[in-house]
Design a protein that fits this description.
Largest sheet of chain A: none
Radius of gyration of chain A: 32 Å
Structural class of chain A: mainly alpha
Number of strands of chain A: 0
CATH superfamily of one domain in chain A: Leucine-rich Repeat Variant
Distance between the termini of chain A: 74 Å
Strand content of chain A: under 5%
Strand content of chain B: 15-25%
CATH topology of one domain in chain A: Leucine-rich Repeat Variant
Oligomer: heterodimer
CATH topology of one domain in chain B: Spore Coat Polysaccharide Biosynthesis Protein SpsA, Chain A
Helix content of chain A: 55-70%
Largest interface: A-B, 47 and 42 residues
Number of helices of chain A: 25
CATH architecture of one domain in chain B: Alpha-Beta Complex
CATH class of one domain in chain A: Mainly Alpha
Strand order of the largest sheet of chain B: 3-4-5-2-1-6-11-8-12-7
Number of strands of chain B: 12
Distance between the termini of chain B: 66 Å
Chain lengths: 428, 469
Amino acid sequence: MLNLAVLLIVSLRRFFKHWYFISLDDQRRRAAENIQNSLQRLDKGWPVPMFSNRKALEQELLRRWLDAAPEERRKLTHLFRHWGLHVDRLTRIRHGPPWQQAESAVILGRIQVQEALPDLRRLLRGENRELRLAALRALELMGAPEAVDALVEILPGVKETAWRMVWAALISCARPEPERLLRHAFHPEPRVRMVIAATLGEVGTPPLLERLLPLADDPDPEVRAKAVWALGRSGSPRALPVLAERLRDPVWTVRLQSAGALGALGDRRAHEALALAVRDPHFEVRHKATGALYLLWRDPIALVDLLREGAPDQFALQSLISELEWRGITWEAINRVHSPLPYVREQSRALVSRLIWVGAYAPVLYALEMHPDTELRLVLLELVAKSLPPAGHLDFMELLGSPYLDARTRHAIEKVIGFPAEASDGRP
Amino acid sequence: MGGPEFLLLFSNFIILVFYILLHIFYLFLLVASVWGAYVHPLRVRLAAFDRQAASVVSPPVSLLIPAYNEEKTIVESIHALLGLRYPDFTVIAINDGSTDGTLEELMRCFSLRRTSIAFNPLLPTRPLRGIYLSTLESRLVVIDKVNGGKSDALNAGINLVRTPWICSVDADSVLEEDALLRVMRPVLEDARVVASSGIVRILNGCSVAGGRVTRVRLPRPPLTVFQIVEYLRGFLQGRLGWSWFNGLTIISGAFGAFRSDILRAVGGYSGQTVAEDMEVVVRIHRYCRDQQMRYRILFVPDPVCWTEVPESRSALSRQRRRWQRGLAEVLRLHRDAFFRYGIVGWLVLPYFLLELVAPVMEIAGFICIPVAYRMGWLSTHYLILYLILALLMGTMLSLWAVLVEEFTYRRYTSWGELARLIRYALVEHFGFHQLVLGWRLLGLVDYLRGRREWGAQRRVGFRARPVRP
């Protein structure tokens, strides 16, 4: 009996919902026509809505708004206000039940209704977490600089775990006037300092970022990490010694950000500090430092020479090789060893030769096996013949077992590594 | 009272206590999940996914996709993953020593080139044979390694990850376009979240094109429809309920996101169990509580991962036996966590202990109680109480799961599909459930006999799936 009753209830609900949706679709269609007509006749003044279902009008406006280009969005926003739909939402955000308040906040944020700012500030300070999240989302969508102080105000609360959302809202709100953030940069609460540094890193101008220099010595490691990251974006020569100093920070995340920041700064005087950081005990820091070195010079040949001269630094070389491969530089060089442009050809050959010499020939092996251009493979083999260290012969001998090699390449490999030609007879 | 009569009545009493305890848990989860299912869609309505998809505050994610003999599905899966809406992500596919043409297929379709990328071998794994980058797609990395099982493959992927978040995805699963955005939404809203998982729905019967589900339909085979009812109950009741109390201990291997530093700190996935997805979550709970961290492990029901389930009885039997064995292994590995670690040790693990012994108790009940009644040792009231607990309560829970689906996410839209789902929910406990109990019992036997392997799985491939009009 219970099951039958449930079945009956579900069926009735579906039945009514079915008709409700049909009617809703019809209302939306009429709302869409109304909006379209209104947009077409804008030159004759802003029209009044010819349709009474305000909910359908609002839904259709918002749907169109999401897919619209900026110019059309501006018109739709104007239409939304002209038809007084924002007044309904302002009433609901002030007097509605919590979920309606939250929904209204997000809609008002999307439509950039500045009159909602006091209500959004009120929601931000409220006890209800869902409402706080909705207000944060609304402020992110609205991007109102006036809300910066209210956003900073909620950050120190120990229960506020949505700091990423506060950060997103701050980025959006502070973009037009980033200097508003500066007065909070030395807030007593570490979380505030961290978020302000991170936000300024996104939206701050170089002179503003330069004023974050004291934060690089902050007692809180998260603040230091964000501050050095932001300083990397400042382009200021004054940041260089501070960032170089932070490469010796006891916390690896700070060292990591510092290495990345020195690369972003692009000042070649950072070379010495970064060359030391490629021996950092932490793997990620080593990698970042090598990447930063590459960014400083943008000359992989010089960098390989630098790292292999004197006492070769295996850590640094390995990181550099990895970095070059991640960035696709090695493969690009391999593809260009046969280039018709003499400069490109010579540079590429120089890099590939050096990589073979330091033992980073895995991409070369792969190209010999799989590259479709036979001439290119033969050029690569010439480079292998010139630069291959004795320890690498075994790897090239193993390549002879590959079923993908053509006869010409196989023969050339055998010549290069001194493998007797007869031995290859009968191989697949 | 004679000896056999006493023994039978005593065992009946134990069975009744077992059922009462189990149903207390079920009702507790039901209430939590109904509330969760009511609140969650309201929250999702407030989300601004368009903004999130372009936000710099969305943390970068590495999608790990372990593959063993997946040549039929791997390329389409990766294409689908690369088409996900998310601002910053990398796909790391791990070929776990496949014996078919998985790697060759990847090389052919993505123009892979072998590299000598350096990585941090923090987690021990079987040897890597090569790391490949694609010349066509800069967000794709492929690892080729010696076969070591799913957990080993995932650990190899974790070693290569450089992003703060990791998301594991099965090679035979299909994610919805905004699934990653949705599963990462709680991460933005709550800095305490260390893991987040989405719902796994059943792909059988659906139409798939271009690595996306284009039409959701109920499959024809009854065995698969029963599994849909089971999945709805498992996800929309069990996981949603436990998640509400921060007691979620299973994040499906098919689709789950983790903070990479936490995953590394707990030592990655364990190779000691076939239920590595459950084991790692229990370990994360323990780690976070040991470190006195404020943390959350969440289940969010709106990000959808579609996955194939077994259509034949033998394949389903293998899967259920493996799950049961995995559960036993996890409980054995974490036996010292019972009655410690807050809700996990005091409620979740004891609940899973009841689930572990459920096949023994329920099958014993199906035998002992009718025998005792037949012998006249049991009253009719007792029998009715037993039948209500054993059959009707289960049916009611299945029905509720279907209703939660209907009232909230409503993926099966036609009247016929709704009627079929309700029909299957009504009859699930009269045959199918007992069949599954039998397989789970065999799983326990496998565990006691020390069986370890995963068992072979046959892949059909998305392209082979007929697209119904």
